[in-house]
Fold these 2 entries.
Entry 1:
Amino acid sequence: MAVYTEVSAEDLACFVADYDLGELLSFKGIAEGVENSNYLLQAEKGSYILTLYEKRVAAEDLPFFLGLMEHLAGRGISCPVPLHAGDGKALRQLCGRPAALISFLEGLSPRRAQTFHCSALGAALARMHLAGADFPLQRRNALSVDGWRPLLEACAGRADTVSPGLAEALESELKHLEANWPDKLPAGVIHADLFPDNVFFRREQLTGIIDFYFACNDFFAYDLAVCLNAWCFEQDNAFNVTKARMLLQSYSRERAFSEAELEALPLLARGSALRFLLTRLYDWLHHPEGAFVQPKDPLEYWKKLKFHQEVRGPGAYGLDL
Amino acid sequence: MAVYTEVSAEDLACFVADYDLGELLSFKGIAEGVENSNYLLQAEKGSYILTLYEKRVAAEDLPFFLGLMEHLAGRGISCPVPLHAGDGKALRQLCGRPAALISFLEGLSPRRAQTFHCSALGAALARMHLAGADFPLQRRNALSVDGWRPLLEACAGRADTVSPGLAEALESELKHLEANWPDKLPAGVIHADLFPDNVFFRREQLTGIIDFYFACNDFFAYDLAVCLNAWCFEQDNAFNVTKARMLLQSYSRERAFSEAELEALPLLARGSALRFLLTRLYDWLHHPEGAFVQPKDPLEYWKKLKFHQEVRGPGAYGLDL
C-alpha cells in the first residue's frame, strides 16, 4: 500500500523510451500491492502499470510471475500482460530494482462481494486453472503446509497477547493439518491470493484478475479454499452458503471436481484460513510501532478457521453431493 | 504520500453518480500530497482526482482553496478545477470526510529543475499572481513570520540533537526576521508551496500548477522566495544563479517588481528557508518511530538559509539593478 522506490520523471522518461507507448503524459505512485512499488502511467497510447519489485519478492521468481501473466493472457484470461521493450525483454531494471511495465486493466474491486461476484469468480478461476495447464515453469507454494510451522514459531511466544489461548490452539490445528494434509489432488498453477482486491469488475462482469505474485503450483482446490475464505464470509464473519454454492457451482461448470477434491475441501479451507491467520499474526506482532500501514486483524481468520473446524463435509459449502 | 481514508468501489460509484462523468472504469489510491487522501479516477468522460480532506486541513479553509482553483482556472491559469455535482456543490462529503472531485492535469514534475523550467515557472507564477487579484476570499498565511516561533518552541529543546548549535542559531535568525520582516509590500494570493512536485511540464512547456492547500494572502515576493529555495539550488545545495535569474526575469516580464520587493528578497528568502527548515525539523523530531514516510532532511534548508544570510542584495539572485 505504498511506494517504496521513488522514480523521477527523468528516470521514467528514459525507461519508457525503450517501449512503444508514445509520449509519457503523467505518472502517479499508486497505493496498490503490499510488496512492490507501483506507478500508474498515462501515455499517448494508453495506460500502463509500472512495477518495481522490492526486496520481499525473490528476483528468481520474477520470470515465473511475468511468464505466467503472459501465458494466461495468451489463452484469453483477462490479466495484466508484461510489455516487451525494444530489446525483447519484459523484465528490466529501474532505480536499481527489477522492474516491468504491464498493461493496465479497467475495472473496480468490490468491497462487499455479492452472489453474482462469486459466480463470475468461480468460472474465471476454473478457466485460469485450465489455461495454466501447459505453462512450463514451476514454483512451489512457500506458504503451504510446510511453510506454516516456521511462521507459527516466530509468533507463538506472543500469540496469546493477541488472544488468550491462541498459541496452543494454533499448535493443535497445525498438528492436525500436518498429519492430514492431502498429498495427491489435481494440481497446477494457482493464484493463491485471490481476494476481492485482486479481481476487477465492470458492473456484473468480471474484467480481470491481477497480482500474481503469490502464484505457484499447488492443488486447484486450495485456490477455491482461499476464495471460500476471502469471498463467502459476511462482515460479521458469518458464512454465506449461497455465495459458496455460486462460487463452487460456476467453477465446476468449467472444470469438474474430482470426488477427492470435494472431500478435501473442508481441510483445505482450514489450511487456507490458518495460512492467512499466520501471516497476519506475524505482521501484527512484527510491524514497527507507529507504522502507517495498519496490519490486518488476524482474528478474523481465527473465526473463519473455527467455522471450518465444525464442517463435516463439502455439503456445508452448498454442494449437493 | 499515502491514502488515509479507504474508499470502496461501492461508495465511490454512489458518489460519482451525482456528476456527469459517465461510467466509472477504475480508481487507484495515489501517493500524492502529504495532507490528504487522493484517488485517480478513470471514467468514460476522462480522468479525475478525488480528494478527501484529512484532519490536518481546516474544513473552514476549503471554500478558499476550491474557490481559488476555480477562480484561477477561469482566468486561464492551468490548474485543477473542482467539478460541481448535480446539486451545484463542489465541496461534498464522502466516508465522513469533506471531499471534492477535481479535474486531472497531464504533465510530469521534474526531479532536477533545469533553467528552462525556472523560466517557465517565473512567467506562470506572475500570471497566477495577477489572475488572483480579484479573488474575493482571504486566508492569512499561518506559516509566515508570526507562525514560526511556536514551531521553534516545539523543537528548540531537541534541535541540537539534529545539529549542535542549531537551537541557538535558529533563535537568533528568528529574532532577526521578526525585527526586520517587511510590513508593506505588494501582496495578494500566493501559492506558498510551489515546489517542483507541484508543477507539471510536458517537455519544455509548463502544463499545470497543483496543490493549492497552502495558498493564502501574503507578499507576492514571498512566493518568489519560496521558488528561489525550491528550484535554484543544486543537489549539493550550491546556489545556481542562472536558474534564479531565469526565474526572476521571466516573472518580471509578466509583473514588474517594485524596488521595495527587490530590496526585501534576501530577507524573504531567509524567511522562506526558515519556514521549511522549521516544519521539516518539527516533522523530523515528532514523526513516529518506524513510520513509513521518511521525513525530509531539515538541514538542507539550514544550508540554504546560511547562503541567504551572506547575500547583500538582490544582485546575488542574478538581477541587474
Note: The longest strand of chain A covers residues 24-30.
Entry 2:
Amino acid sequence: MSRSLNFNAFGVDIHTGQTTIGVWAPSSKEVRVHVENGDVIDLKEAGFGFWSANTEKIKDGTLYKVALDQESALPDPASRFQPQGVHGYSQAIDLSKRNWSDQQWHNLALEDYLIYELHVGTFTSDGTFDGVVGKLDHLIELGVNAIEIMPVAQFPGERNWGYDGVFPFAVQASYGGPRALQRLVDACHRKGIAVILDVVYNHVGPEGNYLESYGPFFTDKYHTPWGKAINVDDAYCDGVRQFILENMRMWFRDFHIDALRLDAVHAIKDYGAKHILAAMREQLDELSAVSGKPYYLIGECDLNDVRYITPVNEGGYGLHAQWIDEFHHALRVTVGEPRNGYYADFEPLIHLAKSFRDGYVYDGTYSPHRKKTFGNKASEASGSQFVVFSQNHDQIGNRMLGERSSALYSEGLQKVMATAVLASPYIPMLFMGEEYGEKKPFLYFVSHTDEELAEAVRKGRRAEFKDFHGEEDAPDPMAVATYEQSKLNWSALDESNHREIFTFYKRLIQLRKKYEAWHRLDRKHINVEVCSDSGVLLL
Amino acid sequence: MSRSLNFNAFGVDIHTGQTTIGVWAPSSKEVRVHVENGDVIDLKEAGFGFWSANTEKIKDGTLYKVALDQESALPDPASRFQPQGVHGYSQAIDLSKRNWSDQQWHNLALEDYLIYELHVGTFTSDGTFDGVVGKLDHLIELGVNAIEIMPVAQFPGERNWGYDGVFPFAVQASYGGPRALQRLVDACHRKGIAVILDVVYNHVGPEGNYLESYGPFFTDKYHTPWGKAINVDDAYCDGVRQFILENMRMWFRDFHIDALRLDAVHAIKDYGAKHILAAMREQLDELSAVSGKPYYLIGECDLNDVRYITPVNEGGYGLHAQWIDEFHHALRVTVGEPRNGYYADFEPLIHLAKSFRDGYVYDGTYSPHRKKTFGNKASEASGSQFVVFSQNHDQIGNRMLGERSSALYSEGLQKVMATAVLASPYIPMLFMGEEYGEKKPFLYFVSHTDEELAEAVRKGRRAEFKDFHGEEDAPDPMAVATYEQSKLNWSALDESNHREIFTFYKRLIQLRKKYEAWHRLDRKHINVEVCSDSGVLLL
C-alpha cells in the first residue's frame, strides 16, 4: 500500500471551456459550492481529503462560496479574488487570460539584483499596482533592477502591511486584484525589472482566517509568535504542504514572478523527513526546467543557520539567499543607534566588519541579548546568498513613530549607510523613498473590520511603546491618517536637498554596476580593515 | 564581545585532595551547599549562571543539599548518588576511585555488536547490577557480545523501567548505585562484553524533578508527549546543553560505557544552528581521540529521517546508528499480529522485505496510520546503522498484559522471528529471556512515592486499555506483584522445551558469526525475494 498524493487542485481553475473546482476538507462528509445566482454544485471526494468537480456553472467572474456539511457557506480558502473583502464571496478568475508581452524577459542573475522594497498601498497616492507602474521610470533612473513587493494576499480592510493576509491565493482587491498585479509584472519585465513577491507561509492574519474551518492547517506541536504553527509536519500535513506548494507555483506560473521573499522562515517548524522549504526548492527547479527561466527563493531567517541556504543535496533547505538583519544592526550601531534591545548585542565598526567578512555576526558565539550561543559559520556561502539593507519596512515601521533613517541621521550619515550597503559584497536592498531621503514616516497600520480585534491591536501597540513614550503618543494603527501619513511624498524629489541624495544613490549604483570589485559578490577577494581610533572601515 | 561558555562543573567533582562543586542556577542571587553535618558552603558566581566553590567540607560519601536564595535545600540536579531516594540528600561520590581491570578491553566494531537488552531490576531475583554480573556466563554461552541496560538514572522508588529518571548523573540506588555499575562494566569488559547504556535526554520523570527549581531546563516552544520540551535551543539553553554533554562524557569517562542508546531522539526539539545530537557526536569523537577507544551513539528515532544517522560534516546529526521499529512491525504482522493501531500501516512479507532491503518501510510514502507522507530514503546508509529486534521492552511492556512473543506465538514462529533478526543485514538485538522463550510477562511497573501521581498512573493505564479488555483487567503498575511477576524465571532453562529454544538461538548466533554473508552488514550484497503465494521470503 504505497499511495502518494498527486492532487493539486485548490480553488477554481479555469481552462479553455472547462472549470475545475477543488477543496481540501479532510473532515467533511459533504462539500458543496454555492454560486451567487443560486446554483449549487456537489463536489465528489477525490481521496486524501480532497473534493472536486468539473462544472460549467462557474466561469471567469462568477461569485461563489463553499459549504461544508450543510453549514453556512464560507469563502474559498484558495480563492483567487475577494472583491468584497475577506468575509465576502470568492470570485472565479481565469488567470490564463492575460496576453503577456514579456516574452523577451529573462530573469537576472541573482548576484546582479539591486532590490527596491515597496509597499503598494503607500508607494503612490493611488495605492495600487497601476500606481506602481507609473513610477517604474523613476526606478530605472535610480538604477535598481528588481522590486520587492510587500505581501499582497487579501487582508482585512484596505490598509495593511500585508502580513495579516488570510487568502494566500487572492491578490488584494484594493490594490487592483490579480489582473492588475499581472499588468504590473508585465510592465516591469518590459522595462527590464525583476519582481520579487513577499509571501507569508508561517502564519495567517487574525481576521478572516477561514482555513481552520476547512482542515487542520495548524498544529499545536509548536508555538510561534502568532500562536499555533502552520501544520507542515503533523497528521494531515500533506494537504497543507500541497496548498503551499501550489501557491508558490501559482506566483511563478500565472503571475510571472521572478523570486519569492519568504517571510520569517524560522517560524515554519518542520520536523518531517523533508523540510517544506526543501520541497519548495525542488518544485521550483522543476518549474524552472519547464519554463527555461531561473527563479529564486529568498528567506527572511533569524537563526544564523547556514542549513537554510545550503543546497538540498548537501542536507540543506535550498534557499538561494536570505536576509541578514545583523548587517543592518551592526551598521545602525556604527552610525550611532542607541544599543537597546537587540542592538545591545552589536558593537560599532567591529561587528560591521565581521558582517562584511562573514555574513553572520553571531556564528557560534554567545549572544547576551538572546542569552544563548547562537549561529554557525556561513564562510562558504557566496555573497549573493545574503540580502543587506540599512533600513526596511520592519526596522522602520516597528519604531513607534516609524522614523526612516532620514528622520534620525544627518545627510552625511545617510550617505555613509547607503555606501555601506551598495559597496557590500552582498545583494543590496533599498526601502522605498530612501533614495531621496523621504522624511515621512512608515508607520504600523491596519484596517481590521472586526471591532474587538481592532481595539486589541490598538491597545497592544500602545502597550508595546508605553515604557518609551507614554501611552498617548502611539499613533492609532486603525486611523486612516496613520496610513495616509505613511505615503511617499514624491514632490520632495523637486527639492534640492532630496535631489542631491537621489543623485548620490544614482551615482553609487552606477559605480556598483561599473566596477567589478563592487559587483562581484566574492567575499574572498575583499579585505576588510577596521581602524577603531579613527572610526574608519576600509574595504 | 565574543564570549563562549567553557564551564562544565555540574555537581560534586572529587579530585585527589580537592573537591569542586558546581551548580547551574541562572536566576539565583545566592547559592549555598548545606552539608548534612551542618556545614554551609557559599558558592560564588562563575559566569553564565554557574556557581562554584572549592571546598574541603565535602569528601567521598558526604551527604549534602543545595539551597537557592535561602529557600529550602534541595537535592543536587547533578547528584552522583541519591541513597535516600529522589527527595533525599545527595551523596558525593569519588568516581575516580575504582581500580579498573579492563585495560585489555577494546570496544568492538559496531557492525559486530550482538545486543542483549536487559532491565536490571527484573533480570535477576536480586534486581541489582551484581545480579547481572552473575549471569554474564549465560550471555557468553548464548553468544551475544553487548548488553544494553535500560535507564539507570535515579527514579522514584525501587521499581521502574527507568524512563522516569530525574537525576541524570545518579545511578539508581536500589540497583546498587554508581560503584556497582562500575563493577558490572568492568566485569563485562573482562569477559569481552560491551556495555550500552540507555539514557533519556528528551524528558524527565514526573516525580522528583528538581531541575525546574534550578533553571530553565524546559521550554514551552515545543510540545512533547511528556509536556514541555527539554530546552536545548531557547534562552539559557547553553547551561542545559552543557548539562547533557557533561552527562554523556561522564558515562564514557567514569563508567567506561561503550555506547549510549538515546531514548526517543525525535522528541529532542532543537532548531538551533547546531543540533544537540551533532554537538554530542563532536564531543564523543573528542573523547575517543583522548582515550583511543571507539564509542557509539545509537538513537531511538521515530522519524525515518536519514539526517539523524548522516555524518555531521554532511549536514547530519551524526548518530552512529538508530533503532528501526518498522522492521519489528513488519515482522510481527508477517507472523500474524492483528493489524490494529500502528500495525495497520504494515503488510505481511512485502513490508518485511522492504525493510530488509531499504531499512525504512515508509521512505517518502503516504502512511495511512500517521495520516501523512512519511520518511526519506536511507539507501546509502550501512546495515550497521540500524538495530533490529523482534521484541523489546516497549513492544512487550506496552501491551496491557506484557506478553512476550513466547506467550503469543508457537515455537516455530518464535524461531522464524529469531532467524529474521539474526540473519538480517542489521545489528540484531534480543530482549532478556527471549533466548529461552521466557513465558513470564514484562509488565509496566512504577513505584512513585507521590500517592496522587501513583493513582493518576493507575487510572491512565486502565483507561489506555479499557476498550480492549475492560477496566478490571489492567495490572496495577504500582503493585509489587506486578514487578515480581516480570522477573525472569531462570529455572525455565532447565526445562527441555526452553532449552531447545536456547540451543536454537545459540546455533543461529554461531552461524551469524561463522558466515560472512550473515555478518557482513552490506545490504547491497543481499538479494531479497518474496513469494507471496507460499509466504516465503528468500534472503
Note: The first strand of chain B starts at residue 11 and ends at 15.
